[in-house]
Structures are given as structure tokens and as C-alpha cells.
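Weekly sync notes, structure subgroup
Attendees: PM, AL, DS (notes)

Item 1: joint prediction request from the bench team. They want all two components modeled as one assembly rather than separately. Inputs as received:
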Amino acid sequence: MTIVFGIFLLTLLVITALGIVHTRNLFVAVMLLGIFSLLIALNFFILDAADVALTEAAVGAGISTVLFLGALALTSERERLGTRHRWLSLAVVASATLVVLYATFDKPRFGDPNAPVHQHVAPWYLEKTPEYVDIPNVVTAVLGSFRGYDTLGEVFVVFTAGIGVLFLLSSRRGGANHRPPGERDASGIGLREHVIPRVVGRLLVPFILLFGLYVQFHGEYGPGGGFQAGALIAAAFILYALIEGEDRTLAAVPQRWLNALMVGGALLYGGVGLAGIVLGSNFLDYSVLGADPVAGQHLGIILIEAGVGMTVTGTLLSIFHAFAARDRA
Amino acid sequence: MMDLILDVVSWALLSAGGVFVLIGGIGALRMPNLYTRMHAASVTDTMGAVLVLTGVMLQAGLSLATIKLAAILLFLLVTSPTASYALASAALLAGIKPDAGHAADEATDS
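Output from the run, pasted for the record:
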């Protein structure tokens, strides 16, 4: 049954991808990209990768769509026709497709227990997680503890991306782009005139925040963790910005708080790693943080997940505000 | 016996929900302009979602899953009319007139 669902979803995925390539209207392409993300999230879910599915749905279908729309508001929604190197690109893509197709012949069968990926380190993680880390969600144990270096790298990638976007887009308030409050156009005040979205949105924001915190701190026991929670919390604030206007959101959570979140999250993660060294073990070894190794692991994972969540929230919201500020200027 | 009744009822609800989703899908493809298409698609959000989720709830029995499904249902019942309102309002602002006689969407702001 999984195979039938998988083939169905992958077929829809290919159709959506062709639609994205084919359409000349970038607005339509953004909407199709959102559908593409939801479909791939469903695919992850039927493959039992609930953590990845949650991330894909929150980041791919939610936040990226909003950021793409923010970018489209600054440019045009028509794709510029470029016909010069079409045959060259077609040839490159076709040959790459052939190589990938050829490579798939060597892949193990779907769900094969003897596949190398199931024989390499995965059995060790499954076996040792209860002993070393003792949390039910092995994904979080692998992400946060066993492969903490990789996640640290990911957090720094997110952090670097945030800095890059802020350098490119950030407009200093009070500079040449500043306008007196009275002259703001409709885009600045959000949907304040529309009662229904406003009432419903205001009703939903606290619940989204609560769910974000649940995903953040429940990551050891179920699907979730810092990345997903960061995206959800950012989504709650973005919803607030859409209905109440960006200036009120910035009044509630100023940009310097967001900067502090971005930097603080990365620093917290790195600091937990250094604390391992100071207490006489290796970088990112949490075992020495608590009274016994397992309690130390628990504490370390909660702290680094909080760091991940802080950085992701701060970065996503900063990027959103950077786009929105350009829009108004 | 109780299980059998529950299974039959939930099967009926799921099938009916599936039919409504199908009707909504066909309507969204076949209706002539944006407002009528939205009207058709709303069947999926309301009847389709309610019937399918109730059917799944009956399958789940009294458990945490049922509470989660009820929360999802409540969430859908609040958000999808709001989304429809936002979409229709945006279309109206973009100049698409709600005219059932028109064959297609043309912006008629003169």
C-alpha cells in the first residue's frame, strides 16, 4: 500500500515540477512550489520520516512561500524570457538525468533491510540511544548528540544566510528610505481593515506559538525540535505581521531582539560545546554536563535544541522583515 | 458487534467524504470563473473534511489521536472560511467581478 501511495505522490510531484518549469507567471510558480513541498512532506511522512516531513511542511510550504512572495512584491511576477542558451541547458539537464537514471539501477530495492544505509551506523544508533541518551526519539538523539557537529554546522549555515540577507536587504530606519508614519501605504498596515482575517488571525497566533513551543520541547519524545519549532514560531509572528502590519510586529519584537536571538542561539550551541571541554571532555560531549552521563545528555540536547530554535526564529523573522522593509521603502 | 457498527459507520462517513472531495475537485476544474470555482472547492473544505475526519475519529476510538483529530477539525472549520474570504476579497480588489454570466475571469476595472 505504501508503494501505491508513494508512486501516486511521486507522480503528482513530477507533474507539479513540470508545471513549475512550464509556467511563465512567477506567482503561479511560487504557489506550485508550496504544493511541491507539501507533496514531498507527505512522501517523507509515508516513509516514516515524521521529523523531516514536519520541517519540510513548515519551512518549504510555509515560510519559503511567504519569503518568495515578499521577493515577488519587490520584482515582477512575469518571468523574463531568456531563449539564448536553451539547447545547452536542455542538453546539460538531459545528460544529468541520464546519469541519475543509470545510477538508480545500482540502488537497493525499496525497503530492503540489507541496504547499506541500514547496515552502516544506523543499527548502532538504534541500539545505543537507549543506553547513552535514553530518549524515545532516536532522530533527535542522532541530530543533537551523536552528530552534534553536523547540526552545529547547520545552525551556522542558517546564521550565515541570515547575515547575508541582512547585509543585502536591510535598510536602516531613519535613512533615505524613511517615511513619516502618516504616509504609509496600504502594504504597511497589513490587513487591519479586514475584520474576519484579523479576528481569526489574532485568535490563531497564540495557538501557533504554543504549538511551536510544544514542538520545541517535545522534540526528544516525538517528531520535532529546534528547526521545526523555529519555523512555526516565525510563522506565528509573520501571520501577526500580515494582519496587524509590520510596524506593530516590530514594536512587539524589535529587530535588536531578533539579532540577539540569532546570535544568542548560535552562541548557546557553541557554548554548550565549549562547556564540554571546560568540564574535561570533548567538544559537544554533553555527558559531563549533568550528574550522570544520561542526565547530561538530556540537558545538552535541550540546550542545543533551544539554540537551534532561537537562531532559526531570529533568522527567518529578520529575513521577512528585511523583505517587508524594502517593500515599503 | 459494536466494532462492526463503528466500522460500517466510519466506512460510510469516509466514502461520503470522498464523494464530496471528488465533487469539489470536479467543480473546481469545470466551473466557469473564479467565484464559482471557489464555491465548488469549498465543498472539500467543509463537508469533505468534516466527514473524512469524523470517519477517521471513529476508527481511532477514544484516544489521544481523536482529540488531535478534533483539534484539526476545529482548526480547519475556522481557517478555511477565513482563507476563502481572503481569496475572494483579494480577487474583488484585483477587479474580477462576481458575474455568473461571464465565461472566464477578466479584470473588468475600467
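Discussion: The first helix of chain A runs from residue 2 to 22.
Action: AL to compare against the crosslinking data before next sync.
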